[in-house]
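2.7 Reproducibility. Because tokenized structures are sensitive to small changes in the input, we list the exact sequence used for Lipoprotein SmpA/OmlA domain-containing protein, including any N-terminal residues retained from the expression construct. No trimming or masking was applied before prediction.
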Amino acid sequence: MYKHLGSLIILCVLLLSLAACSNSPETKTEETFKPGITLANYAKLKEGMSYQEVVDILGSKGELSWELGTKNSKGSYQAHYI
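Resulting structure tokens (single pass, no recycling of outputs):
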């Protein structure tokens, strides 16, 4: 009986250690800002957002790839960043 008691105690200590690690703040993705294009950041992007709002979410300005139309005109304007 005592032979298995030591193994049981070690198993309990390991499980408690694992449970303590899983509650650390670094693993909570909603509370931790991760810059770049992640699924969580993509879900925050909405049609009609300003360039600065998108930069604030993604954490980077990106690089302008191409533009279509004239910026700040009455017509349509599109810009593609990578």
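DSSP finds three helices and two strands in the chain.
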